[in-house]
C-alpha cells in the first residue's frame, strides 16, 4: 500500500495549493473519523475528496445535496413491482447510496450537505453515532469497516442553505477551506488551458479580475476560480472566432462578461448591473478602453503609478 508521505505528495500534485487540507483529510480518515469540508464554492472541495478516495483506493458514493434528497433516496427503497410478487424480501430492496457505502465500507460523499432536509440529515446523524441503521421491513444494516461520511458545504449565507445543527458538527472533523492564493489560482487556470498560448501576464490579470469580484463593495458574492478558467477558455475561442488575439480589448472584456456576470451576485438595493461591475473591474485590471477597434487604445489601469527604481 502507498505510504502516507508518498500519497500526500501525489495528492498535493493533483490538488493545487491544498497540501495542508490534504494532510488534514488524510489524517482524519486514517483515524476513522467523518469529515466535513466547509468553504465557498469553487475552492476544490469535491476535487480534493475525489482525489483522496482515488489515492486511498476506496469506494466513493456521490450524493448531491438538495431539498429533494429524501430519506428513501438516500437509504434505498423496496421495488414496488417486485414487492407485488415477492413481498418485502431483502432481495427486493434497492440500496441507496448510504446503504451501498455502508455495505461496501466506502466513503459516502454528500455535496452541499446544508441543503438537504432536516429529516434526511437526522438519518446521517444516527449512522454516524451508531454505525448502523434500521430500515423498516428490511432490518438492521451495519456499516462495514472503512465506511465514513465525507461532506462538503458552502457557508450558511449562500442561497438555499440552512444552518447545520451542533449534532452534526459534534460528529465530524471540520476542515475550513478558503480561496487559494493568486499564484495557486493562476496555476489552476494554466493547467486547464495548457497549450492555448495564453501568456502568464494575461493569465495573472484574468485571475486578478476574478479575485476582485470577491471583495468588490457592490457585490455580495464573487466568482470562484471556475470563472477564471471559463474566462480564459472563452477568450481563446472568441479570439479565434474573431481572427484576432486575446489582448484585443473587446475579446477580453466580452469573455469576462460571459464568464463572470452570471456567477457574481449584486448586493440588494444596488442600482448597478453585474455587467457594469464586471466591466469596471476588467478595465481597472486590463486598462480602460478609449475606442474599441482593431487598433483600440487601452490606457493604464485606474490608480496605476509610475514605477520608480
Key terms:
309 residues; alpha/beta; five-stranded parallel beta sheet; 13 helices
Task: Please summarize what this structure is.
By secondary structure, the protein is an alpha/beta fold. 45% of the residues lie in helices and 15% in strands. It has 13 helices and 13 strands.
What share of the residues lie within helices?
A: 40-55%
**Beta fraction:** 15-25%
- What is the radius of gyration? 24 Å
Poorly predicted runs of 5 or more residues: 293-309
State the shape: elongated
Question: From the helix content, strand content and strand pairing, which structural class follows?
Answer: alpha/beta
Instruction: Please report the number of helical segments.
Output: 13
The total beta strand count reads 13
Cα-to-Cα separation, first versus last residue: 55 Å
Strand order of the largest sheet: 2-5-8-1-9
Amino acid at each position: 500500500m502507498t505510504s502516507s508521505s508518498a500519497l500526500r505528495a501525489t495528492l498535493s500534485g493533483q490538488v493545487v495549493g491544498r497540501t495542508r487540507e490534504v494532510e488534514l483529510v488524510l489524517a482524519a480518515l486514517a483515524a476513522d473519523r467523518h469529515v466535513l469540508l466547509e468553504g465557498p464554492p469553487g475552492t476544490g472541495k469535491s476535487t480534493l475528496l475525489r482525489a483522496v478516495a482515488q489515492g486511498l483506493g476506496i469506494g466513493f458514493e456521490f450524493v448531491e445535496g438538495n431539498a429533494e434528497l429524501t430519506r428513501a433516496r438516500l437509504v434505498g427503497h423496496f421495488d414496488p413491482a417486485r414487492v407485488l410478487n415477492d413481498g418485502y424480501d431483502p432481495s427486493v430492496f434497492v440500496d441507496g447510496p448510504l446503504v451501498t457505502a455502508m455495505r461496501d465500507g466506502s466513503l459516502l460523499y454528500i455535496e452541499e450537505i446544508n441543503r438537504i432536509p432536516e429529516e434526511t440529515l437526522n438519518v446521517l446523524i444516527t449512522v454516524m453515532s451508531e454505525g448502523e441503521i434500521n430500515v423498516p421491513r428490511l432490518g438492521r444494516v451495519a456499516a462495514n469497516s472503512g465506511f465514513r461520511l465525507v461532506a462538503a458545504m458552502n457557508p450558511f449565507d449562500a442561497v438555499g442553505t440552512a444552518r447545520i445543527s451542533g449534532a452534526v458538527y459534534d460528529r465530524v472533523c471540520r476542515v475550513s477551506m478558503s480561496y487559494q492564493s493568486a499564484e495557486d489560482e493562476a496555476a489552476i487556470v494554466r493547467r486547464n488551458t495548457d497549450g492555448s498560448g495564453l501568456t502568464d501576464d494575461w493569465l495573472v490579470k484574468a485571475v486578478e479580475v476574478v479575485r476582485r469580484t470577491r471583495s468588490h463593495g457592490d457585490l455580495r458574492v464573487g466568482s470562484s476560480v471556475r470563472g477564471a478558467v471559463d474566462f480564459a477558455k472563452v477568450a481563446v475561442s472568441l479570439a479565434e472566432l474573431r481572427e484576432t488575439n486575446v489582448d484585443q480589448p473587446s475579446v477580453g472584456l466580452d469573455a469576462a462578461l460571459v464568464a463572470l456576470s452570471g456567477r457574481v451576485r449584486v448586493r440588494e438595493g444596488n442600482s448597478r448591473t453585474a455587467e457594469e461591475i464586471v466591466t469596471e473591474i476588467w478595465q481597472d485590471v486590463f486598462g480602460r478602453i478609449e475606442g474599441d477597434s482593431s487598433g483600440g487604445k487601452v490606457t493604464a489601469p485606474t490608480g496605476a503609478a509610475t514605477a520608480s527604481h
